[in-house]
Write a structure and sequence with these properties.
Order of helices and strands: EHEEEEEHEEEEHHEHHEEHEEHEEEHE
Distance between the termini: 14 Å
Bound molecules: uridine-diphosphate-2(N-acetylglucosaminyl) butyric acid
Number of strands: 19
Shape: globular
Helix content: 25-40%
Oligomer: single chain
């Protein structure tokens, strides 16, 4: 099974799905044989255990449609199987701004709403109009609004699952772009702009974000990783005060709670750069775990657990995994 963490995983059966019709056929077939189905996009936010039972559908539905709605307002629809960064570049290349802060995020378009991808001050939900899904109960396509998707920080209704009914499968994503201003107030972005004397524009932000990401984050084509391995925890004001009694850490208000940096906690607990076998805490961004080659999903999860336990025992903050864990050992 392809995955950017580069861990071995064998599925019972794998099918490449390039259109909604083939998707429906495959789902019917799997249902008839009572086999579980797992839908996978770019495999860039997955930790796979050694075996995936049932059928894996590799979603490769392509297509990019751009519709001009007004002088500076476009509706852009991308197939779930398109590469996210290619869509960012294609829209910027057409002079359409809006996705520049989300440049260089690995993975497919279909995976973007699942974890409500976000970086450098912008989240997908800020530009999203609707998500087209294949509804497994009705066997047809359906449009979900932003409200239907129940977005939160690195979270959505797609992640939480639909209880007893099978989760809808994302086949396309529609965004409204162009009309929003620039978001250039994230510390890393402003710092890099100042340092290189660049004036903010959609392209300049994409360029700066690309540079910052390249400097801090490992390239999944070279070193196995899934980006952030933990979410930034959101704590109560009381817990934040207690935390500040133990270390210097910034907090960002999220409603009546406070978001803190998981990287800061992992760093302060002494894990930065630590390696266990082939798995390492990335020295330039301790929120990322990398596989230098030869690790299994279980190896990566074992190190993640040690980090979680240690951070909890030192700071009483529970770190939550950011990627999705699939399969069995
Ligand atoms: N920090 C340290 N030590 C380090 C590095 C960072 O203590 O070695 C602390 C610093 O206090 C720093 C803070 O971490 O100010 C924040 O670091 P950064 O700006 O890199 O952001 P992050 O909160 O660690 C989040 C996202 C990233 C996203 C960046 C930029 C999550 C889980 N991660 O990281 O997303 O690129 O912000 O917006 O929200 C991803 O989801 O895969 C991902 C890479």
């Amino acid at each position: 099974m392809p995955n950017t963490l580069g861990v071995p995983c064998v599925a019972d059966a794998v099918r490449v799905v390039a259109d909604a019709e083939t998707l429906a056929d495959n789902l019917r077939e799997a249902e008839a044989s009572a086999r579980p189905v797992t839908v996978v996009g770019g495999g860039s936010n997955l930790v796979l255990r050694s075996r995936l039972p049932g059928v894996v559908l590799l979603l490769r539905i392509r297509g990019l449609r751009v519709e001009r709605l007004a002088a500076n307002r476009w509706r852009v629809t991308a197939g779930a199987g398109e590469d996210w960064h290619e869509v960012v570049c294609a829209t910027l290349g057409l002079g359409i701004g809006g996705l520049e802060n989300l440049a260089l995020i690995p993975g497919s378009v279909g995976a973007a709403p699942v974890q409500n991808i976000g970086a450098y001050g912008r989240e997908l939900k800020d530009v999203l109009e609707s998500v087209t899904v294949f509804d497994r109960r009705s066997g047809g396509l359906r449009e979900l609004t932003v409200e239907d998707c129940g977005f939160g920080y690195r979270d959505s209704a797609f992640r939480r699952g639909g209880g007893a009914s099978p989760a809808p499968i994302i086949v396309a994503v529609t965004m409204i772009l162009g009309h929003r201003g620039l978001v250039a107030d994230y510390p890393d972005v402003t710092h890099e702009m100042r340092r290189s004397g660049i004036r903010p524009s959609h392209w300049a932000i994409a360029d700066v974000v690309t540079r910052v990401r390249r400097r801090k984050l490992p390239d999944p084509r070279r070193v196995g990783n899934v980006g952030s391995f933990f979410k930034n925890p959101v704590v109560t004001p009381g817990a934040f005060d207690r935390l500040r009694g133990k270390l210097s850490i910034d907090g960002y208000a999220v409603g009546d709670r406070i978001k803190v940096s998981a990287a800061r906690l992992i760093d302060a607990a002494g894990w930065k750069g630590v390696a266990h076998g082939a798995v390492q805490v990335w020295p330039r961004q301790p929120l990322v775990l990398v596989n230098h080659g030869g690790a299994t999903g279980a190896d990566v999860l074992a190190l993640a657990r040690r980090i979680r336990d240690d951070v909890f025992s030192k700071y009483h903050v529970a770190l939550e995994l950011e990627p999705t864990v699939l399969g069995k050992d």
